[in-house]
Model the fold of this input.
Amino acid sequence: STFDIDDMPEDRVYSIRIYKQGEKVFPQGFPAFRIGYIQVAVNYPPMTAKYLYERFTEHCKTQEQVVIYDPSSGWGGRILGAMSCRDDRNIHYVGTDPNPDNHFDDGNRSRYSDLADFYNTKTYRGNPFFSETNTYKIFQLGSEEIQHDPHFQDYKGKVDLIFTSPPYFNREAYSEDENQSYKKYGDSYESWREGFLRPTLETCVEWLRPDRYLLWNIADLLIKGEYLPLEEDSKNILKDMGMEYKYVLKMALENMPGQNRLDENGIPKCKNYCLIDGKYSKYEPVFVFYKPKL
Done:
């Protein structure tokens, strides 16, 4: 019988490098590590989040409280950025994330609260003579169903900024929990878009005050040589709900193995890239939307 690799399930396919007998693995093997298929998971840069929070709440910083909503709290980079915002505004961070790895069984604490409390007690913010601490509220629910929570409903129409980096369909499978969106809504991108992405964005728009901003960090996903349109679908959903698209911010990424591979024409193979100081760099798009005044 003949063997066809195309008949194998995707999770059973391996790349094999063949060496001649007696040939050394290195230095020939270094390129495999340099441009390998794996990439370490990274947290969202807290200083980037801090900058965006301050930039897009500048026009409302004098109000009694500035409410920031993060639909996908991730690994805590954005809540840390919120806690570290400057003293000229009173930040209240609201985050949602169903990942059980980041929540404790007592129902009162989470890794998010531990991180925020550590910052608020171990920095100058812990001294009431010099500063006040920023506050937070964390929900262990998915952003596509958080609108049903009675405590979250208290924030409806009171959110001053929305900023997150949502799951990229099935790319960021950080947990095997069944509540993770990539498992919860079937195998197809379309079912994920309608089951997770659309209701998440609808809640964001409904909870956001007029004359406020929504920042959406998402990128198209390359699967089997074709890009899934996460960027365009997100933009279309938001536009259909009356949000005004302003522009895209290009968040340049740190250099990582395999990130800056060039084609034969010298242009990067990745979709989103920019030129910084004569060098190409991959970037993550942050789409800026505005909710018009009533």
